[in-house]
Amino acid sequence: MENDAYGISRWGDGLIGVLTNGNVCLHDPLSTDASPVDLAEVIQKLERRGIQTPVLLRVSNFLEHRIRAINEGFRKAIEQVSYQGDYRGVFPIKVNQQAHVVERVSEYGEEFYFGLEVGSKAELLIALSQNIHPQGLIICNGYKDSEFIRLALLSTKLGMRTVIVMESVRELRLIIEVSKKLGIPPTLGVRVKLANVVSGNWAATSGDRSSFGLSIAQVMEVVETLRKEDLLDCLVLQHSHLGSQVPNMVEIRKFAQEASRLFIEIAKLGANLKFLDLGGGLGVDYTGENSSSANSINYSLEEYCYSLVETVCFEMNDAGVSHPCIVTESGRACVAQSSMLIFSVLESTSYERDEIILAEKDDHPLLRSLIEISDSLERESLLESLNEATYYRDELRALFRRGRLSLPVLARAERAHQKTLGQIRKMMDDLDEMEWSDELNLRVQGMADIYHCNFSLFQSLPDVWAIDQLHPIIPITRLHEKPDRNAVLCDVTCDSDGRIDRFVVADGVADCLPLHSLNEDEEYYLGAFFVGAYQETLGDLHNLFGDTNVVTIRLENSGDFEILDEVEGDTVAQVLSYVEYEPKRLLERFKARAEDAVKEHGATLDELKELVSTYRESLQGYTYYESD
Ligand SMILES: *Cc1c(COP(=O)(O)O)cnc(C)c1O
Q1: Would you say residue 153 lies in a domain?
Q2: Which atom in ligand 1 lies closest to the alpha carbon of residue 243?
Q3: What's the whole-number mean pLDDT along residues 162-185?
Q4: Based on the domain organization, do 536 and 592 belong to the same domain?
Q5: Which residue's CA lies nearest to atom 15 of ligand 1?
Q6: Of residues 251, 129, 239, the one with CA closest to residue 192
Q7: How far is the CA of 332 from the centre of ligand 1 (A)?
């Protein structure tokens, strides 16, 4: 790809590309000869239907493709290794609980006997209502009360393969009690804590100190209790989870080996283990770096499947234990790539560098010196010029504070300073073969333009805020033009944390995003890609920006697309009711106040009517910036 300022060819994974008209396109991974779909056109068509940005766009082909790829990856690995057991994947509902997503996962996974993993009663209720193949598993993790256990046990009566995974010794006593009462023997799993610790953002999920699972001593206690109760036959699954987005293949292999060893030992104690559940952790290469850094992975999906199967196979052969069915709980890897958030840029605050600022006759000498710097910039002395500019600007600010400079003059000083900084930055960018000093690099970092964007980081990209998650973000048009600005992004909340200043770019990660100057009368849309995992329900109502509009599309061979479903984002009234306001009552109270105001301030009845109808309309409106 020419001029790939954003590294799309590295992270796009064959799903995202660029058309000759400079627009981003979506490739259908399920059909190699399908024409790509123009993303900018999709957004235009949605807007014509009244679906405004910010919009979360789900692409069902991407989801189906990932589910196929994971299942086929394991099938192939099983063949290559001559593994004697099967593979059964389950999708952990917590990664994306949205009905349209879970329903599609169940639908696309059915032919592979793909199941679901749940961590709470609410999620179990979702799982029990899905069309899962009778061979598919429902795996119950998390803390379980007797109601949870009752539901799980009863569901097995309907032929569902619901496995209750014990998270603690106490839970076992409860399970035995409920199971006796109902006269239904449980299908049990045991969650074990492994010693291996992994790197990445979720390191705390693994190792001795992780909060989940049983220690070796507790596993022994559980096995002995089951033996006493004559239930050892019910223990069919061993579970462990090493955390999400594990970047390093070596760690995954070590983990699989340790899990296999435990499995062998527990089987030796007489348990009827059939399933080895290796949890989640399969990562997504958000940056395209193919490295073991936090937002990347140093392995492919095929390698992941092969490594797990081979490691388990080797250990089982070594111990003479028959090959178990391998289960994984990949959530992120199933859904991350299948959605993207598209939002518009509302305006930009730029470091002007082309502005003409002339010194005037009676300008303060400091201001004159400041203005003159920009005519004498030399590549060898940029830091020196930067120091001078900052010094003059600070002195002029001090004069203003002491009442010796007027506001219009200070404004010229600020503009001259910004212009100089912008020019320095531009020289550094243009001469990027030069080695700039750390000090200079550090100081120009703060000189990026600010692009103000119509979305809420807290609602739509919470992990970007909470754990510095990186999602590729790119303009969806004008990619045939060289970006001429460097920017950081701000959202529409009035929180200073509502800001993105780390980006995936052509050669890795940078603190500014190359973008285009905004054209008047032309919307400039950005897309944040691979946001399908975890973001949707972790989001909160910061500043009362609610759910965005959500649309699921199906890419068609012709290069066109079909809308499968659309869910309107929250209205202001809905968001207000989440925080216990009653919109009807708000309106009544507002009306009463307004009527009093008519009496007191002499507003006309027409003004009153207009005010009330504007209030009413606002209640029904989108919580984001609406363009007229
Ligand atoms: C969160 C979670 C997963 C999903 O992990 P991913 O890395 O997203 O695949 C799987 N299993 C358990 C027990 C989890 O808590």
Answers
A1: yes
A2: 7
A3: 95
A4: no
A5: 241
A6: 239
A7: 8
